[in-house]
Every structure is written in structure tokens, then in C-alpha cells.
Here is the input.
Amino acid sequence: MTKISLVRHGLVHNPDGVYYGRLPGFGLAETGREQAAAAGRALALEPVDAVYHSPMQRAAETAGIICAHLPADTPLQACDLLNEIHSSYDGRTAAEMEGRNWDFYSIVDPPYEQPEQILDRIIRFFDRARERHPGGHVVGVSHADPIAFAIMWACGLAPSAEQRKRLVQCGVPEGYPSPASIATFNFAEGDSGGLVGFRYRVPWHNG
Here is the structure.
């Protein structure tokens, strides 16, 4: 069995209320650091072979805090496959995006991503992690939409922009991945291969 846990980064310091997307310079708020520490404590309860993270500052900070709770020799590495969605709306106000119902995907042309493309790179991360760490436990710190589409895939659902915030049926009580939540995907190795289990949890909510 190979386990891959996707962790959403912690809450971001964003006093101007913008959609930061792939913009540089957005790190964790103090609450976000506490959330990341809670995820680190939860993940430390079992061995972790490696931690990968999106290139975004908030993901790198979350991964570093998680690693502080793991053995000092745990590998830590950035991975583009875990990056935030490539969107044309970076820098827009949160109020404007609320008015769009946070729709990043309608009437969008390349090079900007659609749900299927985002899911494809997360599955490529799964494949890479399984190849490098067979039988181990890998942590990948990513972002809400990529994790949401991976959860939909695990539940046998097609990636859908409209449904990505309605994941109660997939075991996500709040409907959408919370900051510092952990979505763990279990893969059988050998002849059987494939996904055999999925679990979602939010250590921060558990105190």
C-alpha cells in the first residue's frame, strides 16, 4: 500500500482581500501557521517518506511547518504538479470573484487551465510519488481546487467546476477542502494497482 496525503495550505495573510492565485508574496497568517502545525502533528503519528509542495509561498511555508513535526531527515521538495490553478483572474478582488461565484473556468482559453487539466497533473503527481516511494507515505501540499478535483476523482466523479464545492457526498463535511485539511489516497501496489481507499480530515477542527 502506498499512501499519498494532499494537504491544503493554511490560511493566508490577505489584508487587501484579493484573489492571489499564483501571485508572489502571499504567506501564511498566524492562524494559518497554527493550522499547518495541527496538520503536522496529525501526520507525525505515522512515518512519512517525503514532503512535496507547490512552489507558492503559502504552500512552502505550510510544508516547512509540517516537516518541523517530522524526523529531521524527511526530504522536502517543491513540485510544479502541485501548483495553484493557472488562472487569468489573479489579483482580482475577492468581492469581484464572489460576484462570479469564484468561476475561474468559463470562457477561458489556453494557457489557462480547465478542471480536467488540473486533475491530470495531480494524477501525474500520484504516479510520480508511487514510483519514487512504493509502499510509503508521501505528503503533497497543494491548493483547494486541485485537491477538490482529486477528491472528485477518488469518488468516481468527473472533475466539475460547478460541483467542486459540493463534496459532502465524498466525505468532506464542509463541502470544499478546508485550510490545512488532509485528504489521504491509498493505492494498492503490485498487480492490483489503483486506488483502494480515501479519507478526509481536518486536524485543526479537532482542536
